[in-house]
Design brief:
The chain is of the alpha/beta class. The chain contains 18 helices and twelve strands.
Length: 407
């Protein structure tokens, strides 16, 4: 999609793009471009098999440059680096100098040099870096673009090798604004040493035109309670708790349950073994990876989203975007109250909170949900959707994001 002459230039730096697990990146990019921004993307990699209509409509791949994450990735970018060095030798020399890489460091830190060399030649008015780990990789950005506003979108988690506030000083000293997904995330980043005055709260927004359930919304159409979990399959997501809760309910005679798991990850083999060992494998379906644009359909054909996330020493949910997606599709949301979930899950759904890792508590919640009437589901679904529309519509969020980046 073309941008107007004189449009504000924004450089977005993200981990993987396109990324079917993070459709909000598409929404964020298209939202900025709809407001007239001339956007370029720097990414460490991407899943080109997940290119969707938004990426095509806005020609985002043509605006994307892939840079090395580690030294072993530099060889893949060798051709690009040669072209940059020969076509703009003075700029290349200046980039390496500004990145703080003398001759010795250039040889010892080739990935840093490559990232500096491959940044766009045109200076942006603003840069938005997705998360602390990436900001750690681009601490030289201020030297390359001295007049740009450097913003960090803090999504939570921990940077490898960084455990104390002092470890992040070099990041925060080069950032003008830290945009946090929730108040919980804001407190977390301040605890890491970020000056409070740099922080503000702005959640991820959603293109609500993609999240419109058919009316009337149908619940329990076959008499079975349709449960779904969506996300990466890793231990901190706590999915084994759901399997254990299904075992408890099944032993009580409640087998009118259907649990679908969307996503892939290292824990999938273990979860499959657990489902079989617990005797609930007939109630569980692993759907694998589904592109982001297919998630609304999965949610619409579910009654309940279950998010049994744990809190670890280095991670907690700082927004849990799938919860807002489920609310927009009028699902009941059954979650733990960890991280930001008390903020980002609708208040009417708080009655369905359960303690992390407590299968007995989750079984009790699911038992009560299974006993609800379709009318109760309808009322909860309407209230949940209203909550999500009011706070997470990409139109309002996009206006605020553009303002925080440019003004």
């Amino acid at each position: 999609m073309p941008t107007s002459h004189g449009a504000k230039r924004i450089l977005l730096i993200t981990g993987y793009y396109p990324n079917s697990y993070k459709p909000w990146i598409d929404t964020q990019l298209s939202s900025l471009m709809d407001r007239g921004a001339d956007v370029e993307v720097i990414a460490l990699g991407g899943w080109l098999s997940t290119v969707n209509d938004v990426v095509k409509k806005y020609n985002i791949l043509e605006r994307t440059t892939y840079v090395p994450s580690t030294t072993r990735d530099v060889a893949d970018a060798f051709g690009q680096l040669i072209r940059v060095c020969f076509s703009h030798p003075l700029q290349a020399f200046d980039r390496v100098r500004r990145a703080g890489l003398g001759q010795h460091l250039l040889l010892s830190r080739p990935a840093v040099a490559a990232r500096a060399l491959l940044l766009p030649s045109r200076h942006p008015e603003a840069c938005l870096i997705h998360d602390l780990g990436l900001a750690k990789k681009f601490t030289f950005l201020r030297n390359i673009y001295p007049n740009a506003r450097i913003c960090l979108s803090y999504n939570g988690g921990e940077v490898v090798g960084c455990r104390k506030p002092d470890d992040y000083v070099d990041v925060f000293s080069n950032i003008d604004r830290v945009i946090c997904l929730s108040e919980y995330a804001r407190k977390e980043v301040i605890a890491k040493g970020c000056p409070q005055e740099l922080t503000c709260v702005l959640p991820l927004g959603f293109d609500t035109s993609r999240f419109k359930p058919r009316e009337p919304r149908r619940y329990l159409p076959t008499g079975s309670l349709r449960l779904v979990s969506v996300g990466r399959l890793s231990p901190e997501k706590g999915l084994v708790t759901v399997l254990e809760a299904l075992k408890i309910l099944s032993d009580e005679g409640l087998r009118s349950l259907d649990f679908r798991i969307v996503g892939t990850g290292l824990e999938e083999p273990s979860l499959r073994r657990s489902a079989k060992a617990l005797g609930v494998d007939s109630l569980v379906t692993f759907l694998g990876e589904i592109p982001g644009h297919g998630v609304p359909n999965v949610l619409e054909n579910s009654d309940v989203l279950v998010l049994p996330s744990l809190k670890t020493k280095t991670w907690a949910e700082t927004q849990a975007a799938v919860v807002q997606e489920a609310l927009l599709m009028k699902c009941v949301t059954v979650t733990t109250p960890t991280g930001a979930l008390p903020e980002t899950n609708a208040p009417v759904m708080h009655r369905f909170f359960f303690a992390p890792g407590d299968a007995t508590a989750l079984a009790g919640v699911l038992r009560s949900v299974a006993a609800m009437s379709p009318l109760e589901f309808q009322e909860l679904g309407e209230a949940g959707r209203h909550f999500a529309l009011e706070r997470y519509d990409s139109v309002g969020v996009g206006d605020r994001l553009y303002d925080k980046l440019i003004n």
